[in-house]
Amino acid sequence: MAAVQKQRHAQSCQRRVARSRQAVSHPQHSFLTFQAWTRISIAMHTSSLLAALLAPAAVSAQLHDLAVRAGLLYFGTAVGEGASGSDSAYAAIINNKAEFGQVVPENGQKWDATEPQQGRFSYSQGDITANIAKKNGQYLRCHTLVWHSQLPGWVTSGSWNRQSLQAVMETHINNVMGHYKGQCYAWDVLNEAVDDSGVWRDSVFLRTFGTDYFPIAFSLAKKADPNTKL
Asked: 135: which of 48, 99, 175, 185 lies 20 to 30 Å off by Cα?
C-alpha cells in the first residue's frame, strides 16, 4: 500500500511539473497561472493588509489641534473653578490651548453663583474661566442663564406670577450677560429643559410660564447681547 501511495504522489508531482512547463511554453496559459497565484497571494495576505489599513495612525497633535485639522471649530471642556486654582496638573491641561480651544465654566456662571441674593450680583467664580480663556486665546462658552437646578432659594421659593418672574429673569439676564458682553462666543440660554424620561422638566419657570419661558428667555438674551450666539 505504501508503494502505491508513493507512486501516486510521484505521478502527481510529474503532472504539476508538466503543467508548469506548458504554461511557460504557451504564454496564453501563463496569464491564467498568474491569476491563480495572485488569488492565492491575496488570500494569504488579506488579514495582514486589513490590519495595516485599519491600524490607527500615530498622531503628534493634541485634541483641539486635531479637531481643527478635521474642520471643526474647537475641542473644548468645562472648567472646574476650584481645581483650576488648586491643582497644578489640572491647570496645566486646562491652559493648554492645543488640548482645549474652548472652555466653559462648570458652575461659576449659574444663578446661585452670580445672583445669590436678589439684585446682588457676584462674578468672582464666573470670571475664573473667563480669565483663563482671555489669557490663552481660547473660545469662552458661557453657561447658563435659565436652569431648574442651582437656583438660590429666593428664586425657587418665591411667590411668582408671569409678570414678576419675567422681571426677575430680565434683571438677571441683563446683568450677567452685560458683565460678560463681548467675551462669550456663545451663551447657553436654557439648560436641560427636558428630563430623562422625555417630558418637560419641572421647575419654577415651567410652573409659572409653561413652555412660554423658552421664547421669553431667548428674547431677553438676544436683547441683552445681540452679537453672541445663543
From this structure: 175
Domain boundaries, the chain: 2-54, 63-224
Question: For 63-224, which CATH superfamily applies?
Answer: Glycosidases (3.20.20.80)
Cα separation, 180 vs 171, in Å, equals 15
Torsion from C-alpha of 25, 28, 32, 35, nearest 10 degrees: 100
Conformational region of residue 150, where left means phi above 0, alpha means psi within -120 to 50, and beta covers everything else: left
Question: pLDDT digit of tens for each residue in the chain (230 aa)?
Answer: 444 443 444 444 445 434 433 433 343 433 333 343 333 333 334 344 334 434 455 556 799 999 999 999 999 999 999 999 999 999 999 999 999 999 999 999 999 999 999 999 999 999 999 999 999 999 999 999 999 999 999 999 999 999 999 999 999 999 999 999 999 999 999 999 999 999 999 999 999 999 999 999 999 999 999 999 99
* SS3 readout for 11-40: HHHHHHHHHHHHHHHCHHHHHHHHHHHHHH
Residue spans of alpha helices (H) in the chain:
2-25, 27-54, 63-69, 81-86, 88-94, 111-114, 126-136, 153-156, 162-179, 204-209, 213-224
Give the Cβ contact number of residue 38 at 10 Å.
10
Beta bridge partners of 78: 104
